[in-house]
Amino acid sequence: MRRLQVITLFVLSAVAMRCGGPPAPPTIASFKATPESIIKGKGPVNLSWEVYGSPDTVLIDGMEPILRNEGDTMIVGNSNVNPSQTTTYRLYASNEGGSVEQTVTVTVKDPPPPPPPPPPPPPPPPPPTLSNVGDMLTFNTSFAKNGKITDESDLSRLVNLLKEKENLVVEITAFADASTPAKKQKAEAMKRAAAVRSYLVKNKIAGNRVVVGKGMSSGKIEAKVVRVVEPKAPKAKGKKK
Fold first, then answer.
1. Is 214 helix (H, G, I), strand (E, B) or coil?
2. Could you report the per-residue pLDDT of 42-91, keeping only the tens digit for each?
3. Rg, the chain, Cα only
């Protein structure tokens, strides 16, 4: 009789243990990275997770273990990471009933190459030259009311060119102020052209190489090649007898 009671108690105990067995493993409802792809050095990436089913512990690669608070039935959270290369993060959750895991990969791309440098600016146009009949230069020059030059700086180019090419004859054409009465504009323009000729002569340009033009231009002085004189051959020195 006593043996029968022991067997009965064992069976009842086994049934009780089966009915009150271990819980089901936890469930990973969500484990994601935002964003899933970054340019190297342009983090951070936010990892977020939702684990249900009374997990005791959640482990994520490279992070401290996350423990469930007493009475909670889930572990929900997020954290920032800064991967320097493509990395797969593993989330591991467990309780008495077992464990589950899930992974998410963050792709790290190298930065794009820098854009090519802009093309160099085009070379400046060659400086103007005077060589042939019809070649022309323009100059910005200021004049006083009496026709005298007040700004000679731009005329130095013409002086240098005429000294370089000693066989050129140029015609100087000047302009008149728009405020000058029409009947006096031509005379004013010629007075200014004559002032430029005087400046050239003062700078050792022969007077017979500079002609004052009869026309007018607007806003600038013009020096136009009107003749190219062949240089004279030097005279042979006679021998003394």
1. coil
2. 889 999 999 999 999 899 988 889 988 888 899 999 999 999 999 999 99
3. 50
